[in-house]
Design goal:
65 residues, 0% strand, globular
Length: 65
């Protein structure tokens, strides 16, 4: 069940990646429910996912708090 929460979060973020504001909002919501190790996984995924999408890199501030 918990593994699917990480996958679910990635799915949502991929779907809303057309809108940086929405992406940040969904990321912020996800960080409140994910476990610490899932946040680590998500952070790694975000670094790679946003490498080609500079408009989304601003959202990384949420994982660096």
């Amino acid at each position: 069940m918990r593994k699917s929460m990480y996958v679910y979060t990635k799915n949502i973020l991929e779907r809303v990646s057309f809108d940086p504001t929405l992406f940040c909002k969904e990321l912020d919501k996800a960080l409140k429910v994910l476990l610490p190790y899932e946040i680590e996984q998500l952070t790694e995924w975000l670094l790679s996912y946003t490498a080609e999408k500079p408009e989304l890199r601003q959202c990384l501030i949420y994982v660096n708090r």
